[in-house]
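Homework help board

Subject: predicted structure for assignment chain

Our instructor gave us this sequence and asked us to write out the predicted structure in token form, then describe one feature. I got the tokens but I'm not sure how to describe them. Can anyone check?
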Amino acid sequence: MGWVESIQKAIDYLEEHLLEDLTIEDISCQANASAFHFQRTFTILTEISVGEYIRRRRLTLAAQELVSTNGKVIDVAYKYGYDTPEAFSKAFRRQHGVPPSEARKYMGKLTFYERLVIQVVLKGAEPMKYNIIERDSFRVMGIKREFLLENEGNLIGIPKLWDEVNSDGTSDRLGKLNNGRIKGLLGVCDASSEKEHKGSMEYWIATESDGRVPKEFSVMMIPTSKWVVFEVNGPMPEAMHKVWKQIFSEWFPTSGYEHAGTPELEVYADEDSTAADYYSEIWIPIK
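My token output:
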């Protein structure tokens, strides 16, 4: 089964079980992918999280049911996963602009989200600059946090972690410790199978260094790998998001490579990240 077909199979499974108590592990298993990689790929391609997609689709079906039947609001609320009418009403109003009790009057003005069909751009309008290299294992040091994958804990927590290290001086201290081949700060995603079983992933903000390890930092060995290294040019975070989307919508479906399942890196230079010519990189281990 191809890459696109695998993602679509997971989406189809989600749609078929939309009213059940789904977990990200249940859905990602259909794509033969880890929970982290499926969640991240889905978010990059669609620009919404898996959880948000489920909420939108459930509220779409709930609105359609209210408009086309005489069902009671409280029954529809429970059917589509809301414990109380109040929680359902709040979510319904946020999406549709009116409370559930008024839905039948505003049939033409409700906000409906159709089910997803994944399509891939086989040839991008803009060229992607990348190199494929091999490196022996190397050491990074920095801080690490574990984030739960359920309810998009990692998507919420990682930006907050960057704000923290940039404001408390941690990023400056890490920059001074750098003495490796990769210059700058690293964002390291580690979603190994062991962590996946716990429903979590580990994220590091680190730097490549083989020097003495200060007590506030931890050490991680990045394994020997073949890497595809993508150039990213432009201000953060827009430029980084744009290249990630190209990687999953254009490069992976046609490259013949797969993600190796070991930690991946984002590399940030110690320069003005808002500059138009800011340079950064994405390192993905491949097989």
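Reply (TA_rk): Your tokens look well-formed. For the description, you could write something like this. The chain has two domains: 3-109, 130-286. That's the kind of observation they're looking for.
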